[in-house]
Specification:
The protein has about 400 residues and is of the alpha+beta class. It has eleven helices and 19 strands. The strands form seven sheets. It has a six-stranded antiparallel beta sheet, with helices on both faces. The protein has a three-stranded antiparallel beta sheet with strand order 3-14-15, with no helix packed on it. The chain has a two-stranded antiparallel ribbon with strand order 1-2. Strand 1 (about 15-20) and strand 2 form a beta hairpin. The longest helix is centred in the last third of the chain and has 20 residues, at about 375-390.
């Protein structure tokens, strides 16, 4: 921000004229000001200082616990897009997790993994191609372009025989193959168009120096299995800032609101000038966002994100466990090992969203169960959510009791 607003913050030096004698000494009364110095303008940020500190500490603790390379966390005001907290943690030169001097949440892009199923499922429903009760015969293994140079085998995270799944179950169970079957009806062009509408492939309205646009190639460049893998989070890359803003579309009733970091500016007279509201655009019909909220609430109550539950408050969200590309150019290194980028993005209260929160853990220990979005990231979400509820004094709406016991 200091780099971006350098001219505004710096102000202007004054100009002074001095009269001197032959010895180079200033003559008494011979100094006068031609142009007085003018102080710069101060920025008023959207960041909540207390919340920012607590988010940083929670993230440092989790990165330490799971032996990760680092992590990102963002808290977004659902309605305004104001960034209330944004933190990036990385290992320092001594291998100790510390708050990064770089805003990695805005400058590094990763394949999002299963969080992207939100956008595929929403696109299919919004396009009238499916509803949450639509049924698909989902095999346990799917071979794409069998017998061609593009042949690629895809499996679900858990083994199963061919079974009927509703679209609701596909999202709750996070079925890769079920998502593929649904997305085939959607088509690659429509898939691309919706991803663009959700804000992928371009920098956010913040336009921070060094901010990444992520990676979303033109649809004509999608080859082989790439034509379906985008539906479940591979083949395109997003920053944490893009990802939390995209999920916020669901929380915000189908409307994209750009993230905002500067609330206003204060001039030399101490007068505050408010910045204009963040740009907005419609992406989904409101009823589609409502349907997605119901399904994402079940992801937390009965699906892959049970560790994101908050007692007495409903939460809607989605886990994502993305593989990281290795030096080999594949998802496996020369020793046959994988590295993970584990995420959870959600909002609360689900019935009346106030905040949208992202937590991503970069390269948790791959030998443990804490390498997944539902185990590495979801517990930090729950901890940060408790902080946010307290700091913002958020009360759940009448009748919201969180996850009801399964009968």
């Amino acid at each position: 921000l200091e780099l971006q607003y350098e001219k505004v913050l710096r102000g202007q030096d004054g100009t002074e004229v001095r009269e001197i004698n032959n010895n180079g000494r200033t003559l008494p009364g011979g100094t006068r000001t031609v142009d007085g110095a003018r102080p710069g303008t101060d920025l008023v940020l959207t960041i909540d200082r207390s919340m920012q500190f607590q988010v940083e500490q929670a993230l440092i603790q989790r990165v330490t616990e799971v032996g990760a390379l680092g992590g990102n966390a963002i808290v977004l005001d659902t309605v305004t897009g104001d960034v209330l907290a944004i933190s990036s943690v990385r290992l320092d030169e001594n291998g100790v997790p510390t708050v990064s001097t770089g805003n990695m949440a805005a400058v590094e892009a990763h394949e999002p993994g299963s969080v992207a199923k939100i956008f595929s499922v929403a696109a299919a429903i919004d396009s009238g191609l499916a509803n949450e009760s639509s049924v698909y015969e989902v095999p346990g293994v799917y071979v794409f372009d069998e017998g061609t140079e593009f042949e690629y085998t895809i499996k679900d995270a858990y083994p199963h025989e061919t079974e009927p799944m509703t679209l609701h179950q596909i999202l709750v169970k996070s079925s890769n193959i079920g998502t593929i079957l649904m997305s085939e009806a959607l088509g690659v062009q429509r898939q691309y168009d919706y991803l663009k509408a959700f804000g992928f492939g371009e920098r956010t309205h913040l336009q921070l120096p060094g901010e990444s646009p992520g990676i979303l190639r033109p649809v004509e460049d999608w080859r082989g299995s790439e034509r379906v893998t985008a539906s479940y989070g591979y083949g395109f890359a997003a920053t944490s800032l893009q990802l939390v803003s995209a999920v916020n579309v669901i929380a915000n009733g189908g409307t994209y609101v750009a993230p905002r970091l500067v609330r206003g500016v204060v001039d030399s007279s101490g007068v505050l000038a408010e910045m204009p509201p963040a740009p907005r655009r419609d992406v989904l019909r409101t009823e589609v966002a409502d349907t997605m909220t119901t399904m994402m609430t079940d992801v937390v109550c009965r699906g892959t994100a049970k560790l994101a539950q908050i007692p007495g408050v409903s939460v809607a969200g989605k886990t994502g466990t993305g593989y990281k590309v290795q030096d080999t150019g594949t998802y496996v290194d020369s020793s046959g090992r994988r590295s993970y980028f584990a995420s959870f993005v959600g909002f609360l209260p689900a019935q009346d969203p106030q905040v949208t929160i992202l937590v991503s853990i970069d390269e948790p220990d791959p030998s443990t169960r804490d390498r997944f979005g539902g185990t590495a990231a979801a517990p930090v979400f729950a901890e940060i959510a408790q902080v946010v509820l307290h700091e913002l004094r958020i009360e759940p709406p009448l009748g919201d009791h969180g996850c009801e016991p399964v009968p």
